[in-house]
Amino acid sequence: MDDRPAAFLFGPFRFLPAQQLLLEGETPIRLGSRALDILAVLVERPGELVTKRELMARAWPNIAVEEGNLKVHVAALRRALGDGQPGSRYVATVSGRGYRFVAPVDPSPSVAPSAHASIAESRAHNLQTSPTRTIGRAHTIDALRKQLLHSRFVTVAGSGGIGKTTVALAVAESLVAAYEHGVWFIDLAPLQDPHFVPSAIAAALGLTISDEDEVPGLIACLREKQMLIVLDSCEHVIEAAASLAEQIIRSAPGVHVLATSREPLRAAGEHVHRLSPLKSPPSSSGLTAEKALTFSAVQLFVERAVASVDDFHLSDADAPVVADICRKLEGIALAIELAATRVDAFGIRELAALLDDRFRLLQQGTRAALPRHRSLAAALDWSYDFLPEQERIILRRLSVFAGVFTLESASAVAQGTGAAVPEVIEGVANLVGKSLVSADIGGAVVQYRLLDATRAYVLQKLIESGESEALARRHAEHHRDLFERAETEWATRPGAEWQAEYGRKIDDVRSALNWAFSPGGDVSIGVTLTVAAIPLWMHLSLMDECRTCVERALASDRAKPRRSDRDEMKLYTALGAALLYGRGPLPETDGVWSKALQIAERLGDSEYQLRVLWGLTIYRVYVGNYRAALGLARKYRAVANKKGDAADRLSCDRLTATAMHYLGEQTNARRRLERMLSQYVAPAHRSHIARFQFDQRVAARSTLSHVLWLQGFPDQAVRSARATLENAQATDHALSLCNALGHAAFPVALYVGDLVAAEQFLSTLLNYLADRTLTVWNALGRCLRGLLLVKRGDATGLPLLRGALDELRDMRFRLRYAAYLGMLADGLGAARETAQAHAAIEEALEWSERSEERWYMPELLRIKGELFRLEGSAAAVRAAEDHHRQALDLARRQDALSWELRAATSLARLWEQHGRTNEADELLVSVYDKFNEGFETSDLKAARALLDRLHTTPA
What we know:
- The chain is 63% helix and 6% strand.
- Strands 4-3-2-1-8 form a five-stranded antiparallel sheet, sandwiched between helices. Strands 10-11-12-9-13 form a five-stranded parallel sheet, sandwiched between helices.
- Among the domains are: 7-113, Arc Repressor Mutant, subunit A (Orthogonal Bundle); 137-274, Rossmann fold; 289-386, no CATH class; 564-693, Serine Threonine Protein Phosphatase 5, Tetratricopeptide repeat; 868-955, no CATH class.
- The chain contains 44 helices and 15 strands.
- α23 runs parallel beside α25, α29 packs parallel to α32 and α39 runs antiparallel to α40 (857-871).
- By secondary structure, the chain is an alpha/beta fold.
- A hairpin with a 6-residue loop joins β14 and β15 (447-449).
């Protein structure tokens, strides 16, 4: 039995090891798991020396790591605890040996976390786990919370380094529980192109939006949300950020925006909060340490000094000197932190003297900067100049990273090696300790980044050093190598794990590609990186960015001699997918796929032949050319047979069956679908996902649900559709879920007359699409909404349905187009809009003939007969009877018993009106008796009611 305490109490903190939860009062303190492991060891043995080796063994079991990793996590732990504040001493360093927990610890057998803490942690957010104490900002944070909840759009403005991001994160953290759909932080600092602002927001929120029209798509996704969006570092993309923030506030009433910028966004609805510097003591000869520590600037200085010098404490003698340093640095948080980290090297008084020299140098120079900007520049200059040469080199080389980086990446760029080297590990750890590099310790691998102000400063140093071009090349080469590895791993690693490692590197991919295709760049690196980054764009649903980058690689005259046939094959394949799934089955998509196929065949690459043939086949299905799709499916099967992959052969069965279903060959379609499902083998590699774009079992069951209903098995169809939906929900895959809802669950519910279930399925689909702008599916969602309204007799569905069909036609998306037109004609007839109804049914019949989409033809003929019946003339009645007979005959030839029942019911009703009750009864009984299930569905109930009436009507 584990007799370890359930909780440890020290100072204002409660630590619950089993829950990995640290609380300060009622507020959870978010730390990474390794920092919490280190804390657990220390509080279990308060007052004892715990060696570095013991701590590393606990935090990194069975993994060999450098001491620099331990330093980063201990520094984060100290900062989270406020180590160094008056009365706050927790972790002491035993030089060269390890650490000791020096505060009193009270072990407790059972202490439960508060409800507030558990709620706060359970809400959705992506806030950084790297802890930063918000010293001296409590009043500001509280004021911003209230202002934000009241006015919805607030910008925290202030100079670089003053603490805008720290305050914004603290405000966001305090509001996690206030928003139903979460709090989301978007770092805009890495963006070089304002065009990427919408996609950066969408990526952070996990939204899938159409890149063709990003902003309206993003707004549509946000319209019904209740969330807080934090836009950090807006100044360099200020126009794009301001415009987008305006539109969000105007169009999404439940969304609040908190922005940070060096200047106001000057956007409509914006409320600006100018962040004041931290407060410093006034000049006073009698200033004591106790009095100085009541000022936030001094508190920050002391906290950071303690992190640098373990036994540092502010004496009365040093208090006026520290106060003077804080005043000179204008209360700028970053400048104070940078200065305080060098107490270990110079002591307080020499530090003040050196900083005085730096200010005199700046004042003698030609810089026409505001004093506050000079303060930060002084701190950066001074901090940089006093770094050891190795750390200076590492820091300025790290400025080439646009976003986050790991120690492996830092080593590759700073030292030109693919392995994390001790010099870089130690250098990065020291730079974290000196506040020049920030560390996010929340994940399995620590992610580092340079603060915006620091990166701008050292990037200029990199240019002055003459190394910038060499480092840009090394950075691009590293990301080329990294994503070539990622491309290989994408086929086998779980998607979430793969994205966690590579997804955050999108800004550096963009930066590397911009350099590679610049006049001084290397297009061969650009081409290779573009090819390798394709899975990243696809995984992040950045279809338009993928298309743009691929087209650049294909169009570049400089790149052409460097592109291999294999590169071109991959580029054209990616371009085809980006066009098809991003913009629909446009004519140019077919040409791109065809080029890719020619190359794949020339190279004998069966994987890419299958990938392209699949795309070409889906293209044919989308545009309604089912006969051509059948031919391509046969070609796909030939390659799959040669390749010997069972999953490929079974998927070919599914594709062939789909084409047969739409061509009206229901018996053959069902046989193939049931064979495919009975022999289904899950794909061994995620490369199949890249080819198919959705789960093949879900797609097969969707089609089978349709076929079962058509063949007269309504109850089986309903069960199959519901099972399909459950399978799709388990995949957590966008297109698979849309397929199950829109092509199985909803239409089957509509066919059987269960409008309550149809409404539920449609609501699920529309809610799901609210977070995504999948161009075709958004139009289909509107189409299905119109269908449901029409089915209920609500005439407002007619213009909605007609508009959605026009959208689909303009996209050349014709899958089930004739069926939707037929239902529109039926609704128009019921609304007595006869001319429009006839126009719609004629368009549907003409399209069915031209495309050979015959599965719905019996119903189209029946609907046309119903339109004639409504006219009432003798000629119209004859035409109605003729069309009902044609529908009946075609349904029988297609083995579509449900269409046969509808046609027989319409014809029997027509005969009843003209006194031919015996014929009507005989016909309807002959069809009705073929059913052995589904007697509670609307069609069978209508047929039963008509039969009952016919039996009571005298002949």
